[in-house]
Structure formats: C-alpha cells, structure tokens
Recover the amino acids of this structure.
C-alpha cells in the first residue's frame, strides 16, 4: 500500500490536533481548579483551618478576598464550561494507532480535574448558605 505525503501529513496533523485538544482540556481543568480555589479562599478555607485547629491572626486576611469570590466563580465556570466542551462535545478527530489520543486514558486526567473543580465551585458557592448549619 502506498501512502502519499499528503495522506501522511493529514494523519499526523489530526493526531496533533487531538493531542492539542486534550492538552487544552487539561489546562482548562487546571485553570478551573485554581479559580475554584480562589473562590474557596474567602470562606471555606478559613472554616476548614479552624476546624482542623489551625488558627492565627493571618487567617482573617483570607476573608479580605470575599469581594472577589464572584469574579473567581465566573472565571472558574468559564474554564469549566470550555473544558467540558472540549472533553465531551468537542470535535473528534481521527487518531493514529498507538498515539496518545488513541488511548482511553488520554482524557481521564482532564475529566477528573473538571469534575474536581466542579465540586469545589459548588462548595464555594453553596457554603455561605450551608454555613448556618455548621455554626
């Protein structure tokens, strides 16, 4: 079987595009986790530290981030939406046999990161409503 240079180049290009998509989804999940941690830093982190017995005057400085919680939440939701789109609804391209994108675990890390960030952002947004039950 003869494979032309154009066929080979298109196959290699598709593999790179899918690998790039998986990398982009992973970066979007990482950015979502970081933004969710930013949203958590004003309310949940001080509560968790107090629960663990860690205290100090420096913890009150974390509550100064409370005005920025909606901004962190919007950023996290934007990255989560983009990451979920790339992982679940994004364009599927053909992968070469044996390449990274052909393995079923290639998107597993991105999915775990996206769902972790989703849980964190739900906690961050729901904590002010549920805090009355803990205090």
């Amino acid at each position: 079987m003869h494979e032309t240079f154009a066929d080979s180049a298109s196959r290699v290009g598709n593999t790179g595009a899918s690998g790039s998509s998986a990398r982009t989804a992973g970066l979007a999940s990482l950015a979502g986790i970081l933004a969710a941690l930013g949203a958590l830093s004003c309310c949940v982190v001080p509560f968790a530290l107090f629960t663990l017995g860690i205290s100090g005057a420096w913890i009150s400085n974390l509550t100064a981030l409370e005005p920025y919680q909606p901004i962190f939440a919007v950023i996290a939701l934007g990255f989560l939406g983009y990451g979920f789109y790339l992982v679940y609804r994004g364009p599927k391209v053909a992968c070469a046999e044996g390449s990274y994108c052909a393995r079923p675990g290639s998107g597993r890390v991105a999915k775990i990161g996206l769902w972790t960030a989703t849980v964190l952002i739900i906690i961050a947004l729901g904590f002010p409503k549920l805090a009355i039950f803990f205090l």
In short: The mean pLDDT is 75. DSSP finds four helices and no strands in the chain.
